[in-house]
Design brief:
With 381 residues, the protein is of the alpha/beta class. Helices cover 45% and strands 22% of the residues. The protein has two domains: 202 residues, Rossmann fold (3-Layer(aba) Sandwich), CATH 3.40.50; 130 residues, Response regulator (Rossmann fold), CATH 3.40.50.2300.
Length: 381
């Protein structure tokens, strides 16, 4: 090749090589893990949807890190509410070089996965898992943006006794880490409050459809309130069979059943003011307007009602983004200290963490159902 032919090529190559230096854009990968298959898929997809809204907003705003443009990427993974799938999904995100993880939903998947994230130095914020064990393992990478079971159980016990005036309470749980853990905390709350007794303690599983045996035993004890520790996929059929057996006791539970899908799952057994549930979070006053605006944005985008956890997943992503911006780096080792010191005003309220990674000054919101709709009763702090 002649010298004159080589020189233009070199100029072209030099020009092409210069472009990335001017427009370089690094990728910040954030993972979500939740059940995207199985009976809890509607709740798991809710988490993915909420996180995706945050990711898209960060990209639309052109949020920079260390003065440089970045592309925010979401990588959703399915854990099927199964611990083995959960750890596999966690390892997949580690291998994909995710810098942070929003998840998991279920306590039974969150706890084993947290060991993998901690070993890799990747921070994790759960938008849903409430077992106290999660943040008591000594991991500096474990955080959550919801209240834990100790507070939820105590609050529900006090409400059942002091507001519903229950004196005889039956307790059922699905034997999952979440369901059993919440039921145990509720029983502790009943004992601490006094004035009521647990007249029956029964167990099922998270895939059960037939509850006649345990409900027949419960009916004989004539409870005022039935507490259920588990998710809405079981609570719906449970309510139907309670009605069929003539059990008029109110059903009390945590955020696992407190979804927009429960009316569909329970049908006419849902009743009015018959079910009371609590969501681990809550806003009042001016903050409520922001929460309502988020719900409307969600509705407009996905053409469905949000279930329960989308706002918490959205806030979790934004908390990660704030810590990354403050540190000027998406290296987890560099932004983890900023994450631990977070103070962020989210759509779910003010988010700050205690030394364990639990939410400081956590609020709870009590709901019931009327005419097939979830109705807010009060926020408790």
């Amino acid at each position: 090749m002649r010298r004159s032919a080589v020189l233009p090529c070199l100029f072209v190559l030099a020009a092409v090589a210069a472009v990335p230096a001017v427009h370089a854009q690094s990728t910040i990968r954030i993972g979500t893990v939740s059940p995207l298959s199985g009976s809890g898929a509607h709740q798991g997809k809710d988490i993915e949807n909420g996180a995706r809204m945050a990711i898209d907003e960060l990209n639309a705003k052109g949020v920079k890190v260390g003065g440089k443009p970045v592309k925010w990427v979401l990588q959703p993974e399915d854990d099927g509410a199964d611990p083995k799938m959960g750890t596999a999904a966690a390892q997949k995100l580690v291998d994909a070089h995710a810098v942070a993880v929003v998840g998991h939903l279920n306590s039974g998947t969150t706890v084993p996965a947290s060991k993998i994230y901690n070993s890799a130095g990747i921070p994790q914020i759960s938008p849903a898992a409430t077992t106290p064990l999660y943040t008591r393992q000594g991991y500096k990478t474990a955080f959550r943006v919801v209240a834990n079971d100790s507070l939820v159980g105590r609050t529900l016990a006090n409400y059942a006794i002091k507001t519903l005036h229950a004196t005889r309470i039956a307790v059922i749980d699905d034997r999952t880490a979440f369901g059993q853990g919440l039921a145990d905390e509720f029983v502790k709350g009943v004992k601490a409050a006094g004035g009521a007794q647990v007249v029956s303690r029964q167990f099922t599983n998270d895939k059960a459809t037939d509850f006649n045996a345990i409900l027949t035993q419960i009916r004989a004890r004539k409870p005022d309130v039935v507490f259920y520790g588990g998710m809405d996929a079981v609570a719906g059929p449970l309510l139907k069979q309670m009605k069929a057996l003539g059990i008029g006791a109110k059903l009390v539970s945590g955020d696992g059943i407190c979804s927009e899908k429960l009316p569909q799952l329970a049908g006419d057994a849902l009743g009015n003011d018959h079910v009371l549930c609590v969501v681990a979070g809550g806003v009042t006053g001016p903050e409520e307007a922001a929460a309502n605006a988020f719900s409307e944005r969600y509705r407009q985008r996905y053409k469905i009602e949000l279930q329960t956890y989308a706002p918490y997943a959205y806030d979790a992503v934004m908390v990660f983004a704030q810590a990354i911006q403050q540190a000027g780096s998406s290296d987890p080792a560099k932004f983890l200290p900023a994450l631990a010191k977070t103070k962020y005003q989210g759509v779910t309220g003010t988010i700050a963490f205690d030394p364990h990674g639990d939410l400081l000054h956590a609020a709870l919101t009590l709901y019931t159902y009327r005419n097939g709709k979830k109705v807010k009763l009060q926020v408790i702090r």
